[in-house]
Specification:
The chain is α+β, with helices and mostly antiparallel strands. Helix content is 53%, strand content 14%. The protein has seven helices and five strands. A five-stranded antiparallel sheet has the order 1-2-3-4-5. Strand 3 and strand 4 form a beta hairpin. Helix 3 packs across helix 5, helix 4 packs across helix 5 and helix 5 packs across helix 6. The chain is globular and about 45 Å long.
């Protein structure tokens, strides 16, 4: 009987410790709040320090603050669709690395375009316990309709992460699916890896041209919705 009582006391003590730890643990951060804070921080740095607008410094800023909340493997899987299964583990790693570079530079150029403009996040519409949500935001621009930027996010082992970005309703990830499929059909997975490597090499910070026609898809979408300059 004494041993049973001792065991019960130990279990009760352990349970109380777990409850105490749960009460002391910080409340989980809502995905809309997380994206809002990150965006405000990055935009504040861009607005405060013009030198942060230089491509290399902006890339480092994104790598430190924004990249950790993007699930680039998930994004690459979506962009490749069924062709993802054709790639070997080594090819998959190469594809994720190259697609990450392309997306980060695309996103960084978009942020530079948005510098000095307010970005509003809308209240999250999601039921308790949902593991996939869409965080909606809009860039307020003088004289024209706000430009929507929506983030599809999933809650996983690494917390809330973005797996797609939609600019004016157009998916940044799906925008590449058709071209990726075409390259795989003609040149295989290795051909797609090489194509991405070449694209990223052309878009190196020192090699970027100011010609809008050479900018990444997000900027083309954004530019199409901007008012024409006199």
């Amino acid at each position: 009987m004494r041993k049973l009582l001792t065991a019960l006391c130990a279990l009760l003590a352990l349970a109380s410790l777990r409850v105490g730890a749960q009460l002391l643990a910080p409340a989980p951060v809502r995905p809309d709040a997380m994206m809002s804070v990150l965006t405000v921080e990055v935009m504040a740095i861009l607005d405060k320090d013009a030198s942060a607008g230089r491509a290399s410094e902006l890339d480092r800023l994104l790598e430190r603050r924004i990249v950790p909340v993007f699930d680039f493997e998930h994004m690459t899987r979506i962009a490749l669709a069924r062709n993802w299964r054709l790639a070997s583990p080594a090819q998959q790693l190469a594809l994720v690395a190259q697609f990450k570079t392309l997306l980060v530079r695309t996103y960084s150029q978009a942020l530079l375009e948005f510098r000095g403009q307010a970005i509003d996040y809308k209240p999250l519409r999601a039921a308790a316990g949902e593991t996939e949500v869409t965080v909606r935001s809009a860039v307020r621009r003088p004289g024209v309709e706000p430009l929507t930027i929506d983030y599809d996010m999933a809650d996983g082992a690494a917390g809330w992460q973005v797996y797609d970005v939609k600019i004016a309703g157009v998916s940044l990830v799906l925008a590449y699916r058709e071209s990726f499929a075409s390259i795989v059909r003609t040149s295989g997975i290795d051909g797609l890896v090489k194509s991405l490597e070449d694209k990223n090499r052309q878009n190196e910070p020192a090699a970027r041209a100011p010609d809008a026609a050479k900018l990444a898809p997000v900027l083309l979408i954004y530019g199409a919705s901007r008012p024409s300059q006199p």
